[in-house]
Amino acid sequence: MKPDFAFLDEAAPGIRWDAKYATWDNFTGKPVDGYVANRIVGTHALCAALQSAQEKAATLGFGLLIWDGYRPQRAVDCFLRWAKQPEDGRKKRQHYPNLSRTEMFENGYVAAKSGHTRGSTADLTLYRLDTGELLPMGGGFDLMDTVSHHGAPGLTPAEAANRRHLRSVMEDCGFAAYEAEWWHYTLRDEPYPDTYFDFLVA
């Protein structure tokens, strides 16, 4: 691991995680290059800000569940290769029902140069501390569709409120939202804004 990076579970204990790209449960349908362990890695600045967000969310009765943090460049390259392969339909309905693989890139849901690779971006949601249940957000992680945009029409009042709760917590703790994905937040003052790393999550 590069200096100034840490495992989130060590730097900010108590935050839940499920590193989707280390598993078979992601839009490619298999573990992604660069993710050897199901753990979340990020800069020390990211981990500290997520710890603050966890504490703020707790005052509302919520906890954080992180799906991705630092993403090796080789994982992004894996996404690019996947996009050029024939469609097999295994994950299309769940993750990109109204787009082709290449349109996922054209519409900004997946990037050839990802903010995650700079180490200070996180994909996450909220869960209820009393039950452990994820809050309904009107669409799951990596649903590449307009329903995932902030302010999307058609959400229930509860779903819209839950997205606002997450955005308020994250923005109050130094993060900026990405308008096309309700789960995606980047530190406004990220320490490596021009550096794309490629060490393994292992």
UniProtKB/TrEMBL annotation:
The EC number(s) this enzyme carries: 3.4.13.22
Catalyses which reaction(s): D-alanyl-D-alanine + H2O = 2 D-alanine
Catalytic EC class: hydrolase
Annotated organism of origin: Amycolatopsis silviterrae
NCBIfam families listed in its UniProt record: dipept_VanX
One Pfam short name: Peptidase_M15
Entry protein name: D-alanyl-D-alanine dipeptidase
HAMAP family: A_A_dipeptidase (MF_01924)
Biological role: Catalyzes hydrolysis of the D-alanyl-D-alanine dipeptide.
Cofactor(s) listed in the protein's UniProt record: Zn(2+)
Gene: vanX
Entry note: cofactor: Binds 1 zinc ion per subunit.
Family membership: Belongs to the peptidase M15D family.
Taxonomic lineage of the native organism: Bacteria, Bacillati, Actinomycetota, Actinomycetes, Pseudonocardiales
